[in-house]
Amino acid sequence: MATRSARAVWRGPLFGERPEDAGEGRVSLDSVGTALPMRWSSRVSEPAGESTPEELVAAALAMDYAQCLTHKLEERGHLARELDVEATLHLERVEPGRHSLTSGSLTVHGVADLPPAVFQDLCLTAHEECFLVIALDLPVSVRATLSAPPGA
After folding, report:
1. Are 7 and 35 in contact (CB under 8 A)?
2. Number of C-alpha atoms within 13 angstroms, CB side, residue 2?
3. At 21, is the pLDDT very low, low, confident or very high (cuts 50, 70, 90)?
4. Mean pLDDT calculated for residue range 128-140
5. Burial 90-104 (b: 16+ CB within 10 A, else e)
6. pTM greater than the 0.85 cutoff
7. Helix, coil or strand: residue 61
8. Per-residue pLDDT for 152 more than 70?
9. Rg for the chain (alpha carbons), in Å?
10. Which value, to the nearest 10 degrees, does the dihedral of the CA atoms of residues 64, 66, 71, 77 take?
11. For residue 59, what is the enclosing H or E element?
C-alpha cells in the first residue's frame, strides 16, 4: 500500500478587518519538500503568487486523467508521445459565507499516431473511469484534440 501525506499550517484569522490582517498558511508536500503559501484571498480572487487547495486538486485531476488516458490507450495497443492535460475547477460562492466547487473541465491535447475518432472515444472512456472525476462528483467536461507525431 502506498501512503502519501501533506501538511498544512495556518496562522491567524481567515479574514482580517484589513487585507493585511488576514491569516496565512503554507501547505507542504512531503514527497518533494515543497511549501506553497496560501491565503483565503487567493482562493476567491487573483492568486498573487500563492496556491490554493483548488489548484492542488486541479493538478491532481490533470495527472490522474493523463495516467488514466495513457492506460486506456495502452489497452487498445496505442501509445501517445505526449498528453498535455489542463484541468480547471470552478470555485463559486453558492450562498453568503459558503463557497463550493461547482464544475470543472479537462482539456487534453494528444500527440499520437491513431485515428482521431479512436482518440476521442478513449478520452471519453478515461473521463468516465478517472478516479478523481468520480470522487469529485462534479460536472467535469472533457475536450480533446489530437496531432500526429512529427514524421508520421
Report:
1. no
2. 2
3. confident
4. 96
5. ebeeeeeeeeebeeb
6. yes
7. helix
8. no
9. 19
10. 180
11. helix 53-75
